[in-house]
Amino acid sequence: MDGQLAIDVAGLTKTYGTFTAVDNLDLKVKKGEFMGLLGPNGAGKSTTLKSVSGLIRPTSGQILINGIDSQKNHRKALARVGCVIETPEFYRGYTPAELMEYAGRIYGLNKTETAIRARDVLEEVKMWEWRNKPIGEFSKGMRQRVALAQALLPNPEVIILDEPTSGLDPRGMIEIRQTLNSLKKRDRSLLISTHILKEVSEMCGTVTMINHGKVVTTGDVASLIHQSAMTDAGSVEIELRTLKDMTPAFITDLGGCAGVKNTEKMGSREVKVVFSGTDEDQASLVDVVYRYDLRLLGMTEKGADIEKLYMNLTKGEKASVQ
Ligand SMILES: Nc1ncnc2c1ncn2[C@@H]1O[C@H](COP(=O)(O)OP(=O)(O)OP(=O)(O)O)[C@@H](O)[C@H]1O
Ligand SMILES: [Mg+2]
Fold it and tell me: Which pLDDT value is given to residue 59?
């Protein structure tokens, strides 16, 4: 057993009748890690998250939360888990303050603890000022923030969120993302499903993509995105832009660098480099720019984005991307 894992799912299967929604799925989230769970509609994301949150019973497989088996020791395993699974429908007449009192009782906190934690979490999601207003008057984004506050109330080490920004306007999305990013300081682990790819590249260190209930790929977001930029020949196209004009001598020197397969001048201050080398080699390209004092403006890997990764991995599927 790995003590460093916040979530350790092994061989998770969930069937509904003869239909297999989640199929022998493995998922590991380290302590302090933010993991994005991606996949097309019906891939099994919500089913996975509900199983990990203890809201549904898996057909088979093992789920460990901080090393504790959630099926053998349900209460203890889930005591440190906060989740928002479906867009919650609160009693519209309740205020956030009342909701926190209610949640505090469910989590077994005493009155003083609840009051302290309620203030902390409502401030954290920027809803403290609204604590005595009825939730029925709130926008969807505000309700989503209250839901997040409720999930954070017991100070969980593990947070599980199913599409927390779905249906929110751009401002609402950004606010939720900022709140989630601020949670990172506290060494919490997060498992979040989303269709907003930007959310994964902006917030998550790791990603797991699933389809038809199975893992398609998992790993470090930055390296998966880097791999997605690779052509079939195993090289990437790097575009270099400089402030000053590139001289023929510079282009020759650049072409002679380790890992450079080809250079193509795109304009007087832009060159495309077909490259297949190490990170060390890539850093040397920048050294050449400095040597010629050309002032580097930009260095981009063509096609290195999470959209491309997602589209490659869900090829042939009717993808649902925003
Ligand atoms: N209670 C249920 N009874 C029967 N089938 C179900 C049930 N819950 C989910 N399913 C099916 O399991 C599959 C996976 O559903 P799930 O909700 O986990 O997908 P998802 O990845 O969350 O999709 P979305 O992106 O649309 O939220 C779907 O085909 C769905 O129809
Ligand atoms: Mg879902």
Answer: 97
